[in-house]
Amino acid sequence: MQASSKTITARVQVLLDAFSTVVLKEPDARLVLVGDGPLRAEIASSAPPNVRLARDLTDAQLRWVYAHATCLLAPSLEDFGLTPLEAAAAGVPTVALRAGGYLDTVLEGRTGVFVDEVTPRTIAAGIAAAEQTRWDPAAIRAHATSFGEDRFAQRVRALAAELGTNVPEPR
Fold first, then answer.
1. Higher pLDDT pick, 107 / 36
2. pLDDT per residue over 37-48, tens digit each?
3. How far is it, in rounded angstroms, from Cα 73 to Cα 17?
4. For residues 46 and 19, is the Cβ–Cβ distance under 8 A?
5. Strand ordering across the sheet containing 94-97
6. Are 4 and 72 in contact (CB under 8 A)?
7. CA atoms within 13 A on the CB side of 53
8. Burial grade of 171 (CB within 10 A; 0-12, 13-18, 19 or more)
9. Measured between alpha carbons, how far is 157 from 147 in angstroms, rounded to an integer?
10. C-alpha atoms less than 13 angstroms from C-alpha of 30 in its C-beta half-sphere
11. Which residues contact 4 (CB under 8 A, 6 or more apart)?
């Protein structure tokens, strides 16, 4: 499992509490927290050995982390919901808060599962649901490509055409 955020926040403690429930059932489970923030030192000092903290990753390193993750945990509110798309590009499903940009970037049952609130109980239940689902990594990757630059340009040109405006093809 992986949790990714630009800033490690208080919600990470909720993830750690939820993860302690997961470990009771799956002692070999691991959690990678990606990001930095004012709570990093506190979390690092209290995290169990099967929790790793990573920061300042290169794009290649982050892609490696996603490629080796079972799922992405996304409990924070994001306006766009970019982290699930990063995970989806690696064929990895997401457990996300049912809010914000995640509503646009996570397809329940196809690319991830939603939780309605961020508590240890709901996150643990989301993880369990994700682990019990047979995911199709190719379908998850295909969903991510629907948010790519080429697809975006196609949509802009189509909308412009509907408005009677011609948008030239890129050179």
1. 107
2. 888 888 888 888
3. 13
4. no
5. 51-54, 31-36, 2-7, 72-74, 94-97, 112-115
6. yes
7. 21
8. exposed
9. 15
10. 9
11. 34, 35, 62, 65, 72, 74, 83, 86, 87
